[in-house]
Structure formats: structure tokens, C-alpha cells
Write a structure and sequence with these properties.
It is a single chain. The protein has two domains: 53 residues, Arc Repressor Mutant, subunit A; 132 residues. The chain contains nine helices and no strands. About 6% of the residues have low confidence.
Length: 204
């Protein structure tokens, strides 16, 4: 590979090349915004041809998806720390939903699918079974709530995550005229969502 591109340090392999392209895309997005960032801009940022970027990402949507994936990993790591020690299912759901509703609009790399005509794709992706299944694993494996003891099997946990995601999407994509925050938001969620999170009664 020519050293004139890639900032003078060409990638050692395809994985490193993808990471360098994502890094360049983030710089472009932060500087110019999503509406003014195209694959050609990312290529210019790296000093490579557009065809080189196309080799790894056939369009902006796959590249945006990679950027949001990196942001997702960072965001869920924050949640691990913030909600450590919360064992009550209702309290966890209320706090988790409130935090995501408040912070998601402030996390630009996670909300990229909401702009530039991508909102419909964001909504479909958020409700996709694979995304729900992934977040089920987060709840089951990375929280201190004993979901089994609360009466949740895999199907019910899947349904809980689905309704959480749909409500979060609704409140982020189409927020009310006067968005609730802080104590008001948590009270709203505790009143209307909390009763649905009570331990699941099993028939004898």
C-alpha cells in the first residue's frame, strides 16, 4: 500500500483498515455533520481513493451502522456502571428507560440514524428481532436483576425489552412538546410502565 494515503501509516490488515475508516468517518461527522458527510469526504480525510473506502463499506448506511455500533458498545459500558447494584426489576426498567430517553439525543453517534432521512430505518432496526435479542442478553447477563426469580423466562424478557425499545423510540423520535426529564420523567415511567414490570405470576 502507498504511504501517501492512510495518514502515512497504511493498515496492517482489513480489520485495521475498517477501524481507520470508521475513525475518519467520526472525524468528518463531528466536523461537518451527517448531512454533509459522504464516502468521498471520508476518503479525502484518509487520503485514499473513494474506491478504497467502497472496498470496505459499499455506502454510507453500512458505515453509519459501524459508527453507531461503536457508540452502542461505549453506551452499554456506561450503563453497566450506572446501574450496578439495582436488583429491583421495576426500578431498573424505570431508571434504564429514563436514562436512555434523556441521554440518547445527547449521544450524536447513536442518533445518526435519526437524521438525513434515516429515521424510518432507525425505527425498523430498533424493533428488529436481532436487536431485541441482543438487548435481552444485556439485561440477562450484564445487570444485577435476577430476572428468573422475578418470574421472567426468555419469551417474557424478550417482550419486556421489545416494549421498552418501542417506548424509548417513540419518546426520542417524536418527543412531547414539553419533554419530561429527571424526577418528572421517572414518575411518569413508574406510574405507567412500572405496573407492567411486576414479578410474573406463575399458575400452580
Amino acid at each position: 500500500m502507498s504511504r501517501r494515503g492512510w495518514g502515512g501509516t497504511p493498515p496492517a490488515d482489513d480489520h485495521e483498515a475498517r477501524q481507520m475508516i470508521v475513525d475518519a468517518a467520526i472525524r468528518c461527522l463531528d466536523r461537518d455533520g451527517p448531512a454533509r458527510t459522504h464516502l468521498s469526504d471520508v476518503a479525502t480525510e484518509l487520503g485514499v481513493t473513494r474506491q478504497t473506502v467502497y472496498r470496505y463499506f459499499p455506502g454510507m448506511d453500512p458505515l453509519i451502522a459501524e459508527v453507531t455500533e461503536r457508540a452502542y458498545q461505549s453506551f452499554t459500558a456506561e450503563l453497566d456502571v450506572l446501574f450496578e447494584g439495582i436488583r429491583d426489576p421495576t426500578e431498573f426498567v424505570v431508571e434504564a428507560m429514563a436514562y436512555v430517553i434523556e441521554q440518547l439525543p445527547k449521544t450524536p453517534h447513536l442518533t445518526l440514524m435519526l437524521v438525513g432521512g434515516r429515521a424510518d430505518r432507525f425505527e425498523r432496526a430498533g424493533a428488529a428481532s436481532a436487536v431485541i435479542a441482543r438487548n435481552v442478553r444485556v439485561l440477562r447477563d450484564r445487570t444485577d436483576v435476577d430476572w428468573s426469580a422475578a418470574g421472567y423466562d426468555d419469551r417474557e424478557l424478550h417482550e419486556l425489552v421489545e416494549i421498552m425499545q418501542r417506548l424509548i423510540q417513540s419518546m426520542v423520535v417524536a418527543p412531547p412538546e414539553h419533554p419530561r426529564t429527571g424526577t418528572e420523567l421517572r414518575g411518569f415511567l413508574r406510574r405507567w410502565v412500572g405496573p407492567a414490570v411486576v414479578p410474573v405470576a406463575r399458575p400452580d
